Amino acid sequence: MDLYQAKNEEGSDLRSSSKIDDLIENEAEIIRLIKEDGKLLMDNGDGRDIHNIIQEDKLLSVEFNEVLKRFHEGEASDVTNSVADEDGDDKYDSKEHHEKSLRVMDTLKHIVNKEVIPPENFSHVVGEIYRSSFPRLENFSFLHERLKLKSILVLIPEEYPHENLNFLKLTGIKLYQVGMSGNKEPFVNIPSDLLTKALEIVLNPENQPILIHCNRGKHRTGCLIGCIRKLQNWSLTMIFDEYRRFAFPKARALDQQFIEMYDDDEIKKIATKKNWLPLKW
């Protein structure tokens, strides 16, 4: 039974607003099919295969192609030089940032309402706290009109791009920057005091709604979110499961170790004193 048949039997509507969720519901199956270059994603007897369905929907096509591109890039890099590739994930590349915006905006130029375009790796965390990868030009309307952000917390040390700064100035969104390096062997680790400083910014209701991002929204952002989950008394199993889903396919053991070992006594004292805890959904 192929993926398209399975979705039909489950009554799933691939053209609904949850198309991507439906497509990635069975991650193992998707990965297997992608590795085989889609050879098993054949038609269901009606002349329409899953590739037709994706290509007929412009928004779905853009997002799916980005997923494929990131997957194949990650797979190739893991084979050649996984450490260098992880460094590439951490380091902000202004040229890449700009070129991605141009490509996506060119593809979506026919769409009138661009408020529906969130950044890559975007998700709600808790309350009015959100996470994502580095926002680009096509995401600005979503951040301002839909989320009505008050603040953005960026976790990279590089200079923030001018187009993003202009957007923040125009909309009155406040920027906080707590620059940190990702956890890497042998001796590079996120300083605990920086993580505590970042948490103090995020947990303050005066800064919310707030978006947290690094470069890809995977590792540094994942560590910060993992420490938020500790404050919510999540089990480590649940915390690591969430971390791995957003860091896929490059989850780092050092990140998970950092989350487990992070001493949250200080931030708990600060947050409790200021009535920021417990966090509310």
UniProtKB/TrEMBL annotation:
Name the domain of life.
Answer: Eukaryota
Tell me the enzyme class.
hydrolase
Q: Boundaries of each Tyrosine-protein phosphatase domain copy?
A: 121-271
What is the reaction catalyzed? 6-diphospho-1D-myo-inositol pentakisphosphate + H2O = 1D-myo-inositol hexakisphosphate + phosphate + H(+); 1,5-bis(diphospho)-1D-myo-inositol 2,3,4,6-tetrakisphosphate + H2O = 1-diphospho-1D-myo-inositol 2,3,4,5,6-pentakisphosphate + phosphate + 2 H(+); 5-diphospho-1D-myo-inositol 1,2,3,4,6-pentakisphosphate + H2O = 1D-myo-inositol hexakisphosphate + phosphate + H(+); 3,5-bis(diphospho)-1D-myo-inositol 1,2,4,6-tetrakisphosphate + H2O = 3-diphospho-1D-myo-inositol 1,2,4,5,6-pentakisphosphate + phosphate + 2 H(+)
State one molecular function term (GO): phosphatase activity
Which keywords accompany this UniProt record? Hydrolase
Name of the protein described by the UniProt record: diphosphoinositol-polyphosphate diphosphatase
